[in-house]
Automatic annotation (TrEMBL):
Name of the protein in question: ABC transporter, solute-binding protein
Record-linked Pfam families: SBP_bac_8 (PF13416)
Residue ranges, annotated region (Disordered): 25-57
UniProt similarity note: Belongs to the bacterial solute-binding protein 1 family.
InterPro entries to which the protein is assigned, alphabetical: SBP
A single GO cellular-component term on record: ATP-binding cassette (ABC) transporter complex, substrate-binding subunit-containing
PANTHER family per UniProt: MALTOSE-BINDING PERIPLASMIC PROTEIN, MALTOSE_MALTODEXTRIN-BINDING PERIPLASMIC PROTEIN
GO molecular function (one): maltose binding
Upper lineage: Bacteria, Bacillati, Bacillota, Clostridia, Eubacteriales
Keyword rRNA processing: no
Signal sequence residues: 1-19
Species for this entry: [Clostridium] leptum DSM 753
Annotated GO biological process: maltodextrin transmembrane transport; maltose transport
Biased composition (Low complexity): 28-45
Length: 445
């Protein structure tokens, strides 16, 4: 299925290469780009005037604090186009996002428009089932994303039971290593695509008093993104992912376990900084950007945050080849979507925003803000580093996104989410982690 959905995207990637161009418990964390009450039920305005002018407010929620940069871009754009329209942006943490949305909507409050992961993790389906999301079939023109009228990997996550509930943020998300070029040059480290060379280099860094890596280990999503990266480099990893996609392999498959053991061996050797255990994504980015570590393994979507943390940082993209076949693999996923809250009091403004997000101009505004890797040929990357991130010998799916299809009655995504941090903290073993997820993969025979 993934291959069929990916066909259009691969063509887009070719065009781009030739042309050159989400996370802890506790209280919900919010960041408002403007002051005032952000509840949709109490927002004011939201009417289109006779001259096509929009006014009042539009409140947008994002499920990741690193996406605050999107709000800045939207405010700048609409301040010029509709100066009487106030954009309010709030960000939440991934682990609390679903409960925050459900609680707000249940109280007839919340955002007018909210970003989500589509059907990648069950949140959209859950709140659709609660009638909190407005169908967009008669609002959104999907031709930018579906050239032949068929769903693609980019757009497929926006549908629940074949009804459109979101407009894609049409980027390709992948996993990457950024490295500090100045640290490498100062100490004579040479980037190598060979996995054994990489590990030897990390050992030497430790001997030299240099911390090799950081990760946001308080966030399960950051931890499984690193797993994707390691799967791509480990023997049998790409085939394990493909067999999972074909519903032929469980998490406790020896190939999946081998990559998990490699991952935890890096932790045990001290490759990851001591601060990693307490890092969220923002802290991990800051640690790397300020020279605390030589490298960071993270999502491609954090490129803008890395640059924002240190404008003078001299960094590049480090790629690892698979230790078995020598090919460079890249785990990619669709990014997400914007949806309209069913209880919005600013429907005109919300519809205007969704209609705008169906244009190449809007997608470029969003992607440039995040320095994302474009997944449609109409948008080229603003940053050459984003182009480099998207270059690979073969693109395959991220592992987590395949889990739902491996279950009939089980909940492997939930098991995966709940057990990454305990695995990192040493509360469970690799075997226990693998078996807890595998037990939920009841569609695999």
């Amino acid at each position: 299925m993934f291959k069929k959905l990916l066909a259009g995207l691969l063509a887009a990637s070719l065009v781009l290469s030739l042309a050159s161009c989400n996370n802890g418990g506790g209280e919900t964390s919010s960041t408002e780009s403007t002051g005032g009450d952000s509840s949709a039920a109490e927002s004011t305005g939201g009417n289109e005037g006779g001259d096509g002018e929009y006014s009042g407010t539009l409140t947008i929620w994002e499920g990741d604090p690193t996406r605050a940069v999107c709000g800045d871009a939207y405010k700048a754009y609409f301040a010029e186009k509709y100066p009487n329209l106030e954009i309010k942006m709030e960000t939440k943490t991934e682990n609390t996002y679903q409960s925050a949305l459900s609680s707000a909507f249940g109280a007839n409050q919340g955002p007018d428009v909210f970003w989500n992961w589509g059907t990648k993790n069950g949140i959209l389906e859950s709140i659709v089932a609660e009638d909190y999301v407005m169908p967009l079939t008669d609002i959104a023109d999907m031709s930018l994303f579906e050239k032949d009228g068929e769903k693609t990997m980019i757009s497929g996550i926006c549908y629940v039971d074949d009804v459109l509930y979101g407009v894609p943020t049409a980027a390709v998300d992948t996993r990457t290593i950024y490295y500090n070029k100045d640290i490498f040059e100062e100490h004579g480290y040479e980037p190598s695509t060979d996995l054994a060379d990489f590990e030897a280099m990390c050992d030497q860094m430790l001997a030299d008093g240099i911390q090799p890596l950081t990760v946001a280990a308080t966030e399960y999503s950051s931890l499984f993104h690193v797993y994707d990266f390691i799967l791509c480099a480990c023997k049998g990893g790409p085939e394990f992912i493909k067999d999972t996609e074909a519903v032929k392999a469980k998490q406790n498959d020896p190939r999946g376990v081998y990559a998990l053991e490699k991952y935890m061996s890096w932790r045990d050797k001290g490759y990851f900084s001591p601060a990693s255990t307490g890092n969220d994504a923002s802290a991990a980015v800051l640690e790397f950007a300020t020279g605390g570590t030589a490298m960071i393994i993270c999502g491609s979507w954090l490129l803008s945050n890395v640059k924002g943390a240190n404008e003078d940082l001299n960094f590049g993209v480090y790629k690892l080849a698979n230790e078995e076949d020598g090919k460079i693999y890249s785990c990619i996923t669709a990014n997400g979507a914007y949806s309209i809250a069913a209880n919005t009091q600013n429907l005109d403004n919300a519809k205007m925003f969704i209609e705008w997000m169906c244009t190449a101009e809007a997608q470029k505004t969003w992607m440039d803000a995040c320095n994302s890797v474009p997944g449609i040929p109409e948008v080229e990357a603003a940053d050459p580093i984003a182009t480099e991130i998207g270059t690979a010998d073969e693109q395959i799916s991220g592992y987590y996104e395949l889990l739902a299809a491996t279950a009939v009655n089980g909940t492997p995504n939930k098991a995966d989410e709940e057990n990454w941090v305990p695995l990192w903290n040493g509360q469970i073993t690799v075997e226990e982690f693998a078996n807890r997820v595998a037990e939920q993969q009841d569609a695999v025979k």
